[in-house]
């Protein structure tokens, strides 16, 4: 019977091509608008490391005091001082931990025909590779011992390895960074979590993949400046040494705490550390600390752009308007067939069979609308850069899941829109239709 009802539905669609076209276009445009904006919202609100997002935490310590935190609703600074980061690294209260910052590094190619250039680079500790599940194409990360010895070692990204070494195994070779040679110990495979959870403060959640990793200790020893934010609540003085001893906040910090008990213990440790700094005279206020996991941190930092949320709501409203128009068109289409319905009912068709017939017909319209919507969604994803920033727009992709979701939403939306017209059609009284005809 399904095949029979589908045949009847398709035959009915061909009888009123203009009306059918209007419904298909309404559904297609509404679905395309909503799916295009959803593709952006999905990418920006994605959990970048779902397997560990509940185990990785950002500690925050208020080193500026309540007067400076008034504008931030009592929240501590989003970054950390060098003093606090080194103290936390020294105390080793987490399973794994790292301080990190984006470094201003120039790459000097061995090929004299190539000019020096810059790539996204970071200084962090050896623990970071395991914490963040960084995959490797060749080799591995450096060791904790090399952190302590300030070793001149580096891990490079896959794209940089292809650019400098034609994609071969470059482990053991040297790379010139800021005029100094570093021994390559590993080549990271493609690793680009979106959003960029590990450094939201400097990237707003979106950036190019890291191509150079060097030990944090080596970067600080060489006084390598940060290419990220540097916020100070007073004059830090002159020179590198005075700056890193100041209360300027410029470092990110992450701790891996696999269990709730460990997270609770770390919170107590942060409060105890702040109380210790208060007793030492560095802080003149009560401890004010925070500890947020990946999801909480992204939410706190409002990584999902406001325009993505607004666009999604507007597009869903547009889809609703399209569905209301579809309801009207379906109602007009179905009620014009009252005589057909009356004859079928008089010949023994039940209301259930009328429901099934017309809902299958609506699903066929939804399928056609989904195909049109899919084509328009593809165009929308290509043109999303006209609305959003390039770093955000590049995240919107038309993958298999979005294709299936587009077609599914079109069919389900049309079937839902057809319920009222179908109900009205099923209420047709056979006797009235037979008498009037």
TrEMBL record:
Q: Where in the cell is it found?
A: Cell membrane
Q: Which UniProt keywords apply?
A: Cell membrane, Membrane, Transmembrane, Transmembrane helix
Membrane topology recorded in Swiss-Prot or TrEMBL:
Multi-pass membrane protein
Q: Which PANTHER family match?
A: ABC-TYPE MACROLIDE FAMILY EXPORT SYSTEM PERMEASE COMPONENT 2 (PTHR30572:SF18), MEMBRANE COMPONENT OF TRANSPORTER-RELATED (PTHR30572)
Which Pfam families does the record associate with it? FtsX, MacB_PCD
Record has Cell membrane as a keyword: yes
Q: Which residues form the MacB-like periplasmic core domain?
A: 20-221
UniProt GO cellular component terms: plasma membrane
Name by which UniProt lists this protein: Peptide ABC transporter permease
Regions crossing the membrane: 312-334, 355-388, 400-420
Q: Where is the ABC3 transporter permease C-terminal domain?
A: 313-430
The yes or no answer to whether the keyword Zinc-finger is present is no
State the Gene Ontology terms under molecular function: transmembrane transporter activity
InterPro entries from the UniProt entry:
ABC3_permease_C, MacB_PCD, Macrolide_Exporter_MacB
């Amino acid at each position: 019977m399904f095949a029979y009802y589908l045949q009847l539905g398709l035959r009915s669609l061909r009888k009123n091509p203009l009306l059918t076209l209007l419904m298909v276009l309404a559904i297609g445009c509404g679905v395309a608008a909503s799916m295009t904006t959803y593709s952006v919202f999905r990418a920006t609100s994605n959990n970048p490391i779902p397997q560990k997002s509940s185990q990785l935490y950002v500690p925050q310590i208020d080193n500026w005091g309540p007067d400076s935190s008034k504008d931030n609703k009592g929240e501590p600074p989003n970054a950390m001082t060098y003093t606090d980061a080194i103290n936390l690294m020294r105390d080793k209260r987490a399973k794994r931990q790292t301080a990190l910052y984006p470094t201003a590094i120039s790459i000097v190619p061995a090929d004299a025909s190539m000019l020096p250039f810059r790539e996204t680079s970071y200084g962090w500790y050896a623990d970071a590779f395991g914490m963040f599940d960084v995959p490797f194409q060749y080799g591995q990360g450096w060791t904790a011992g090399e952190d302590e010895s300030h070793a001149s070692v580096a891990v490079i990204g896959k794209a940089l390895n292809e650019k400098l070494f034609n994609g071969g195994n470059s482990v053991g070779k040297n790379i010139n960074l800021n005029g100094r040679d570093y021994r390559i110990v590993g080549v990271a495979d493609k690793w680009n979590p979106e959003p960029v959870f590990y450094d939201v403060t400097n990237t707003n959640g979106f950036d190019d993949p890291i191509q150079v990793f060097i030990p944090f200790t080596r970067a600080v020893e060489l006084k390598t400046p940060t290419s990220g934010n540097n916020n100070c609540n007073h004059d830090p003085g002159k020179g590198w040494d005075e700056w890193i001893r100041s209360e300027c906040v410029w470092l990110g910090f992450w701790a891996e705490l696999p269990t709730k008990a460990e997270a609770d213990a770390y919170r107590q440790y942060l409060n105890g550390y702040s109380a210790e700094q208060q007793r030492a005279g560095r802080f003149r206020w009560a401890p004010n600390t925070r500890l947020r996991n990946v999801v909480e941190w992204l939410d706190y930092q409002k990584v999902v752009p406001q325009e993505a949320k607004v666009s999604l709501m507007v597009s869903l409203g547009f889809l609703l308007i399209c569905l209301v128009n579809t309801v009207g068109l379906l109602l007009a289409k179905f009620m014009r067939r009252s005589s057909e319905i009356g004859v079928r009912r008089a010949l023994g068709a039940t209301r259930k069979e009328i429901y099934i017939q017309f809902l299958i017909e609506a699903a066929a319209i939804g399928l056609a609308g989904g195909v049109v919507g899919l084509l328009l969604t593809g165009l929308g994803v290509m043109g999303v850069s006209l609305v959003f920033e390039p770093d955000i727009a590049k995240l919107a992709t038309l993958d298999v899941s979005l294709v299936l979701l587009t077609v599914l939403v079109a069919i389900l939306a049309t079937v839902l829109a057809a319920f009222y017209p179908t109900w009205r059609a099923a209420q047709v009284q056979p006797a009235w239709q037979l008498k009037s005809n």
